[in-house]
Amino acid sequence: MNLLKISLSTSIIGIFILLLIIQKSPEKIYINQSEDYLNKIVQIKGNIKNIKNYNDFQIIKIKDSTGEINILINDKLNLTSKNISVIGILKKYNQDYEITAEKIYYAD
Amino acid sequence: MLIEIIIALLFGCVVGTFTGLIPGIHINLISLLLLSFSISLLNIFSPIVLIVFIVSLSITHTFLDFIPSIFLGAPDEDSILSVLPGHRLLLNKRGYEAIVLTLKGSLTSIFIILILTPLFIFLLPKYYPYIQNIIPLILIIASFYLIFNEEKKLTALIIFLLSGFLGIISFNINISEPFLPLLTGLFGASNIIISIKNKIKIPQQRINKVKINKKPFLKSITASLIASPLASFLPGLGSSQSAVIGSEISGENESLNEKEFLFLLGMINTIVMGLSFITFYSIKKTRTGAAVAVSELIPELTLNHLFIILITIIFSGLLSFLIGIKISKIIAKNIHKMNYSKLSLFVLIILFILVFLFSDFFNLIGGLKGIFLFIISTSLGISCILLRIKRMHLMGCLLIPTIILLI
Fold first, then answer.
1. What is the CATH number of the domain that holds A97?
2. Shortest Cα distance from A69 to chain B (angstroms)?
3. B383 contacts in A (CB within 8 Å)?
4. Does residue B369 belong to the interface with chain A, where contact is any CB pair within 8 Å?
C-alpha cells in the first residue's frame, strides 16, 4: 500500500513538473546546426526566400546567414513580413532538414 | 551481390539476436540507430544489401525479444500482456515452454505474412484512403472498448489518461529518444522493481517437448488474422491491445488459454513487423521504425525488392527460431542458479545508463530530463501493477497523442 501511495503521488506530481519543464522556450538555433537538433523543438529566425502553396498546406523556404531550410505549415498563411521566427519540430524529409511549424512570429 | 546479401542476412540475425536479448530495448530505437549508421554505409554497400540486413535484424529481434520479457520480467510495449501468462508459466517451472510458444507463434506468422502479402498489395491501395479518414475514430472506439472491458473501469480510465499526459509530454520534452525512457519505464523498469521488491525466486525449469494441438491453435491463428492488420494500420495500437481486440472480435477470448495467448502474441509481434514492409511497398506508409529505415534507403521499392525482402523474412525467421530455441534452453537450464534480485538490479542499472546516454549523449540537461521522465514513467507503471489494472492501458501514452495529432 505504501509503495502504491508513493508511486501514484510521484507519477502525478512528476507529470505536473514535466508539464512545467516543457513550457520552457525551445532552443534557438542557426540553420547549419540542424543536424544536432533532429526531432527536437527549435526556434529559427530568417528571411523568406520563397513560398509554395498546396491544397491544404504551405512550404516556406527561409534563409539565415548560415543556410536555408524548408518550413512546413499545415495551414495557408498570408505573411506580410519577410523576416520571420519559426518554432517547430525539426525533421528530415528526403535527406533534407525541414521544420514542421507550430508557431510563426514576425521577427521585426 | 548474392554473397553480400547472404552475409547481410546472417549478420542481421546475429545483431538481431543481441538486440532482442537486451531487455527493454524496442526495435524502433535500434532502427533509428541503424538508419544513421546505414546512410554512411551507402558508399560501401548497395541499398538492397543494407535493407536485407535491416529486415533480417528486425525479424530476428521480434523472435527473441520475448526471452528477456519472460525470463527477466522486463517487457517492451509490444509484449506487455505476455508478462502475466509468461511469468505464470515461468514460476510454474515452464518458462522454456512459454518461450517456445512465442517462437512457434513467430514461426507460424511467416506463413501468415506470405498469405496476407497479395491481399495487402492488391486491396490496401484501394481501401486505405477510406480507412485513413476513420483512423482517429477507430482508435477512440478501441481505447474505450478496452477500458470498459476492465473490471475497475474508472481506475483504468485514470491510468489511461495519466499515460496520455506522459505521452504528450514525451513528444514535447526535447530529448533525442523520448520513447526510450517512456516505454522502458512504463513497461520494463516498473516490472523489475516489483520483482526486486517481491524477492522473486525462480524455480528450476523443466525442459519438455512443447506440444501444440492443432485445433485450439487454429483459434489463435484466426484471432491473429484480425489483430495483425489492426496493429499494422493503426498508429499507437500495440500488439497486445490488437491481440485482445482480435481475440474478442473472433469470439475466441473466452477460450484462449495462456498457451494459446502466448502463441498469438508471438505471431502478432512478427506479423506486424513483416507486414510493415509490405505496407510500405503498397501504400508508402511506414508503421515501424525498421520500415522507416527501409524507406530512407530505397524510397520506391520495386517488386524485385519486395521479393528479396520476403525471402529474407523466411530465412531469417527460420534461423531465429533455431537460435531462440537454443538460447532459451540454455537460460532455462541455468536461471534458477542465478540470484534473480541481483540480476534484476543489474538490468535496472543498465536501463538507467541507456536512458541517460540515448536521451542526449552530449548534453547533461537532456540526459537528466530523460532520467526524470524515466522515473515518472516507472512510477506510473508500478501504480498500474499495484492497482491490478492491465498494463495495456498504459498504451494511452501513444494512443492519446496519436488521436490528438490525427484529429
1. 2.40.50.140
2. 19
3. 4, 7-8, 11
4. yes
* ipTM of the complex as predicted: 0.74
Number of compact structural domains in chain A: 1
Structural domain range at position A56: 26-106
Any CB–CB contact under 8 A between B299 and chain A?
Answer: yes
More confident: B131 or A6? A6
Distance CA B350, CA B357 (A): 11
Contact criterion met (CB < 8 Å) for A4 and B383: yes
Share of chain A above pLDDT 90, in %: 21
Closest chain B C-alpha to A62 CA, distance in angstroms: 23
Q: Could you tell me where the DSSP H helices lie in B22-46?
A: 27-41
pTM: 0.75
Give the residue numbers spanning the domain of B363.
Answer: 2-406
Residue B118: CB atoms within 10 A of its CB come to 10
Domain count, chain B: 1
Q: Is B212 exposed, middle or buried (0-12, 13-18, 19+ CB in 10 A)?
A: middle
Report the alpha-carbon distance of residue A78 to residue A94 in Å, rounded.
27
- pLDDT confidence band for B79 (50 / 70 / 90): very low
